[in-house]
Amino acid sequence: MNPLCGRCNQVVYPTEKVNCLDKYWHKGCFSCEVCKMTLNMKNYKGFEKRPYCNAHYPKTNFTCVADTPENLRLKQQTKMQSQVHYKEDFEKNKGKGFSVVADTPEMQRIKKTQDQISNVSVYYRSNKTRSYQQPAASQNYHHYEPTPEPVRPAAAAPPPSSGKRYRAVYDYAAADDDEVSFMDGDVIVDVQQIDEGWMYGRVERTGQQGMLPANYVEAI
To answer: Domain LIM zinc-binding: where (predicted)?
Structure first.
């Protein structure tokens, strides 16, 4: 039994049969879907089992994904997982009132600097407040003589130079008239140790001299 033509749906005889695109065609019916130009096996282009000439071949710019039941199920599952993760993160961070900051080397350096400044501030305030401690009252509870207030060594008469040199590892702003300000990397010369927490020296860059915290510099 002879097949039917894919274009005109009429019987195709062997002498005029063209077998292409899973169909049989009359030679005259094997033509472009758009311009009806007669095609052959060398110049046709197939799209969705229909013949086209080169000029009218459909251009496909993107791939469309069908909303099959399986794709819809995966889409819904992904959405539910996203909502679960969001809820978990919200419950975990609820009430904390702060944002998590990565513990980078830069953040560690800033934290160390802040700790050093805090320690120096506590030490400095403790020295300042020693002079304000009240003396013990006399046994008669009527009158007592205040004791002289201890003071920190004055900066007016610096000790003789010993040639020690230090380099600043942090910035420091003077908190009193007898202190000296400096920047990270400044060289401090003529350094003398006053006590465990304080030194006396001169900033080579500015020429200013005065007292400075010992944990802000390192020997060179």
So the answer is: 3-63
